[in-house]
UniProtKB/TrEMBL annotation:
It comes from Massilia glaciei. Residues 1-17 form the signal peptide. This is Uncharacterized protein. Keywords: Coiled coil, Signal. The keyword Signal applies. Residues 157-184 form a coiled coil.
Length: 365
């Protein structure tokens, strides 16, 4: 895959956190849907730190969120990789946006093929001290998030309106050309229709979203909104991704106490949410498990479970009622689904696993 990103090895001395962060490239030892070994087509970073638990947390989070498997214990094969089937034409590379001992931030570039091949980007950042994968709620207050989304929404509308005005001028000039082709006129009209919808106008307007991805660079936070046009409309979307870069100091009014501690070095606030983070634990005191949970709409909760010895992903679905969490494991047709009946207490989950027998269950970051 031809990439605008260079894959490289970064070793940084972490003056602020007091840890050396080593990032080494490794291939993903899995297969695609045609049964072919993926090999070097999918590259993953492998992190080593003096605190092995933190390094394992980062490696597992990257491997689970990107590829659906537990990370490797060393720079070799991911655990459970044989159960992961990637699309036949999928490939991946990465670059490091920040590695200064406080924050480790990646940009992943993936190429997938549908009607035609296309490059996508995703962004992952970690608190090096704890291994926590950072999300918007960690960094931004609710009011701050809303303000940033309004700013992005306005920026996107402005970009599409600007492109729309330019395309309309092009169409006017084209119509004066007696030698114009039908194809050129149709192409311009298609672009005008798309940009009009994406700017919130036209006969079938698109709702203009202010949602964005976050990239933590050394001096700025980059807010990145995906293009408006879908996969089939990619060739007509001349605006594409929209970036807004904000210095950390200018971001101050929008930050949570934890965000200020991490990004500005002010205070020592921590973030202890159990959602969106790896939870480790035991069943019956002996069976190792790794769980990743996410809150959905209402009181719905979803997630992924790994029995560490097996390493294959199992889907979890359930509900949260106050501090009571009930989760069901996906099970083959005709088999009863094992249940997790847990309670949230401080920074951990505890309760019981109910399957063919009952086992004590404990989970914590």
């Amino acid at each position: 895959m031809k990439s605008i990103f260079a894959l490289f090895l970064v070793v940084a001395c972490a003056a602020q956190a007091g840890q050396a962060v080593s990032v080494q490239p490794r291939p993903f030892e899995g297969r695609n849907e045609r049964g072919e070994a993926v090999g070097d087509a999918v590259k993953m970073p492998h992190i080593t730190l003096p605190d092995r638990r933190v390094a394992a947390r980062i490696n597992d989070m990257l491997s689970i969120t990107l590829l659906g498997a537990l990370g490797p214990k060393d720079a070799g094969k991911a655990r459970g990789a044989e159960a992961v089937v990637l699309p036949g034409a999928f490939s991946q590379e990465y670059t490091i946006a920040r590695n200064d001992g406080r924050i480790l931030s990646f940009v992943f570039e993936q190429e997938g093929c549908g009607a035609y091949c296309e490059i996508y980007h995703s962004y992952s950042s970690f608190d090096v001290k704890t291994g926590r994968m950072l999300d918007d709620a960690d960094l931004f207050t609710e009011r701050g998030q809303a303000a940033l989304e309004r700013r992005m929404q306005g920026e996107r509308i402005g970009r599409y309106r600007g492109m729309l005005a330019s395309l309309q001028k092009d169409l006017k000039r084209l119509r004066k050309n007696r030698r114009r082709s039908v194809e050129a006129g149709d192409d311009l009209q298609g672009r005008i229709d798309l940009n009009s919808r994406c700017a919130g106008g036209g006969d079938d307007p698109e709702p203009v979203s202010g949602k964005f991805n976050v990239q933590l660079a050394y001096k700025t936070v980059n807010l990145i909104a995906e293009r408006c046009g879908n996969h089939a409309q990619r060739a007509l979307d001349d605006v594409g991704e929209v970036w807004i870069s904000i210095t950390y100091e200018n971001l101050r009014p929008h930050l949570t106490p934890y965000g200020k501690a991490l990004l500005l070095g002010e205070g020592d606030a921590r973030q202890d949410s159990l959602f969106g983070q790896l939870l480790r634990g035991k069943l019956g005191g002996t069976i190792g498990v790794t769980v990743l949970l996410a809150k959905d709409e209402g009181n719905a909760v979803g997630g992924t479970l790994f029995y560490d010895k097996v390493g294959q992903p199992i889907t979890l679905t359930g509900t949260l009622d106050g501090d009571a969490l009930v989760l069901a494991e996906a099970a083959p047709d005709g088999e009863a689904a094992p249940l997790w009946r847990l309670r949230m207490e401080a920074n951990r989950l505890h309760g019981k696993w109910v399957g063919k027998r009952e086992l004590r269950a404990e989970l914590a970051p």
